[in-house]
Every structure is written in C-alpha cells, then in structure tokens.
Amino acid sequence: MMRSFKKRLLMLGMGVFLFTYTCLTDCFVSCATDYAAEEEARRALPIASNAYEEWPDGPAVGAQGAILMEAETGTILYEKNIHEKLYPASVTKILTCLIGSEQCQMNEDVPVSHDAVFSIPRKSSNIGLDEGEVITVEQCMYGILVASANEAANALAEHISGSMEAFVELMNQRARELGCLNSHFVTTNGLHDENHYTTPYDLAMIARAFFDNELLCKMSSTASYYIPPSPTQPDDDLYANTHNKFMLGGRYNYEYLVGSKTGYTNDSRQTLVTCAEKDGMKLICVVMREESPHQYDDTLSLFEYGFSNFQKVNIAANEKEYTVENHDFFQTDNDVFGASNPILSINPSDSVVIPITAVFDDLDSELSYDTESESSVASIQYTYHGIPVGSATVDLAQEEAENTFDFKNQMENHQEKESESTKEEPEDAGGKVIFVNVRLVIVWIIGIAGFFILIFVIKAVIDNYQFAQRRKVRNRHKKRKKIPSEFDDFDF
C-alpha cells in the first residue's frame, strides 16, 4: 500500500514537473515569438533619411531607433526615430566615463562605499568590489567600460560629486552642454528606471565627445583588463568584455572599430553605441531597442552604408568664391602689401560630408556672424537640398613668423659678408633680438602721414579763410569814392 502511494506521489510529481516545464517552455517560446514579431514590426518602420532628396537609401534595421552620424561635422547620414525617448541601459556609462575623464586624473584614488556596492542588484554586472576597497580612477573606468561594472560607476560618481544624486545632476547638465534635447538621467549606470531615458540623437551627441577622447577610445575597445591586488584591493582578477561581440572576434570582428559600448535590460532590450573610422571619415552609430545579435548586424550594415555612399570634402580647398546674397564677402584680389596673407580665411580643417554622387558646387551656404569663438568672426553653414552637411568658421589670420623682420639674422648675415671680405672675426652682436612687424610699421607710417596731411589741410583752410577776409576788406576800400579837391585840375 505504501509502495503504491509512493508510486502515485512520484507520478504526480512528474506530472507537475512536466506541466510546469511545458508551461515555462510555452511561455519562453511565446515571449521569443513576441520579441521576434516586434522586431519585424520595427523593421517596417519608416526611415526618415530615405525621404531626403537625392540622398542614398539606407538599410532597413530591426531597431526601434537608429542613427549614423559623422563625428567631426555632426552630419546625420541615417535617421530612424532619432528623437524618440528610449531606455539606454548600460550605454549610459559612456556619459559617466566622459565626465570622469574630464573631472579626474587617472591616478586618483576612488574609495568604494557601502551605497556604491549594495544599491545595485546582486546579479547585475559588476567586478566584485567590496565596501572599503580603493582603486584608481583608471581602474574604475576600465571596469566600467570593459566589464560594465555598475558598482564601479557608482563609486566614480561619488568620488567626483560626493553622492550619486549630485553626480546625476552633473550628468544632465553635461548632456545639455553637449547638445542633448530629450534626455533625463537618473542613475549613473543605466539600471532601469522609468524616468531614465534618452534618444539615439542625444546618445550620438554624447558619443561625439566620448570618441574624441583617445583614452576613452582605447578603453572602450579593450577586450580584457587586469587589476592587480594592492593593499587597498586584495583581489587578483582579470576582467573580460564578454558583453560585446565586437571584442570577441569571429563573425563580428570589424577592422575599422574605434570603440563600442553595449547595454541591455528587459525593458530597454539591446542597445549599442559604436564608432568606426575609415579613409579619414569617423562615423558614430547608435542602435536602440533591438534583439540580440541583430544590434551588431544593424551596426555593421549602417557602417557599410555610410562608408560606401558618402565622402568627406574639405571646404577651404573647394570654396573658390564666397558670396552672400550677391554681395562680396571677404575674398579680394587686391593686396596692398603684395605677398601678405589675407586678413580672414576659412578654417583649413573644416569639412562637409556629402553623398558620393554630389559635388561641392551642389551645396547651398549661409553666412552667420553669431559665433562664440574669439578667433572667428563668422561661420558658414552648408546644406545639400536642405540637409545640413557641415560648416566652416571664418577666422582672423594669425600672425606668422614669416611676416616679421628679424634684424639679428640680417646683422649676422651682414657680419658674415664683412668677415669674408676682411677675413676678420665678426664682433658679437650681444644685443636683444628685435622683431619688426612690417605691416604694422607701414600702418603706423600711413597713420602719421595722414595726421600731418590733415593738419596741413586744416592750416590751409584757415589761411585761405583769413586771406579771403583781407581781400574783402581791400575791395571795400577800393569801392570808396575819392573826395574831390580844388587842386585836382592842376598838374604840379
């Protein structure tokens, strides 16, 4: 009887197990199917940049939002829902580390507090830091960018601002300074919060500054990092970037990669921010709300689209004659000083990014005198069929050494000639080196000459006025009649 009961109990247990397993499997398959269906629906969403006039059509991607931006000019090559608010997950950490690079020296000590460690979920990404340990800023940032360590992001934030809350305020302030339009950050590491959001465009603007930093590029392209034990940190661990398939080689190995950061939560799905450089063109790709591993496929497709369909063109080398509403701007063929440099010039490093089917002469331009740079007097904004493709600053020419006259060199040359003719040793000049700006001297001479000419003209006017007055007096005297006399008829 007991054996039969045990058998029935076992069968019941197996039934419960199979039922539970079936339910979980069905749930998993259902969820996976739902995610796949959502991805296909997202793939059919419109791509805004495909509506640009005479613009190359971009690839369809399964991401909810995606952007491809040229880093130097800020030209948007591809856009899909770029201003939609989405959850960034761990790609938040590129802003955290950007601020860290701006605010800290790499050898500063970062103490790990109780809140930094215990405010994150136990199973979330971390490098096992314990309360009371101390690591350097450099080790902390490598932990954040290589292992996506959440507690390291908290510790860095407390080190910089005193508290995570104060650091989050700094994050939002810095985001606005970088040109973000629709972002609000609540955490240092991107752990999910309904009020923690950003957009593909805003992330691209943050990434422009992030990937402009050589050290951050190196950190975000590092596959593994070793933190040795120390008196303040006893662990001996090697951390690998297992989150990012770009770092693991194989199918997603990309030779033009500059750096990359991944992110994932159940609510955000897959997010990815990546930078690549080829043939002098540096592109930033942001993919938000995608399913693994298609965030990598999307990114590679967008890089291929960008590098194959666009070109970077130097403005100064192609801008031959600039006019604004048919009025001459700053270009002139008349040079009073012969070989002197122009007073104004287009910044030689500025460029535009345009389709390979376009030429520079196809662009429209607009002049603006609203510039914050002290060395610039204006800027030129370029568009291609209404799409911004880059800009150039009009800068004041810098005085160069070739525009000065070095009397010491001239004296030495003269002494050398005398030495050759007299076979005597030249005397040591021993004086100060005197540089004379020829153009400035000429301006002063013209100014002084003009002053004396003005004095001469004023004096001539005064003298002429006095002469005219005397002449009037003489004329009045001549007009007076002579009084007749009885002796007028006699010739004595």
Strand tally is 19
| Main beta-sheet strand count, sense and barrel state | 5 strands, antiparallel
Proportion of beta-strand residues: 15-25%
- The helix content is 25-40%
Residue windows where pLDDT falls under 50 for at least 5 positions: 1-31, 323-339, 400-408, 421-436, 487-492
Taking the alpha carbons of the first and last residues, their distance comes to 188 Å
**Tally of helical segments:** 11
Sheet with most strands: strand arrangement: 2-1-9-8-7
Large-scale geometry: elongated
- Reading the helices and strands in chain order gives HEEHEHEHHHHHEEEEEHEEEEEEEEEHEH
The computed structural class is alpha+beta
Oligomer: single chain
Average pLDDT reading: 82
Radius of gyration: 38 Å
Produce a short descriptive summary.
The chain has 492 residues and is an alpha+beta fold. The protein is 38% helix and 21% strand. The strands form 7 sheets. Strands 2-1-9-8-7 form a 5-stranded antiparallel sheet, with helices on both faces. A 4-stranded antiparallel sheet has the order 13-17-16-15, with no helix packed on it.
Features:
492 residues; 19 strands; elongated; four-stranded antiparallel β-sheet; disordered N terminus; five-stranded antiparallel β-sheet
What can you see in these coordinates?
It contains eleven helices and 19 strands. With 492 residues, the chain is of the alpha+beta class. A five-stranded antiparallel β-sheet has the order 2-1-9-8-7, sandwiched between helices. The chain has a four-stranded antiparallel β-sheet with strand order 13-17-16-15, with no helix packed on it. A hairpin with a 5-residue loop joins strand 1 and strand 2. Helix 2 packs parallel to helix 7 and helix 5 packs across helix 6. The N terminus and C terminus are likely disordered.
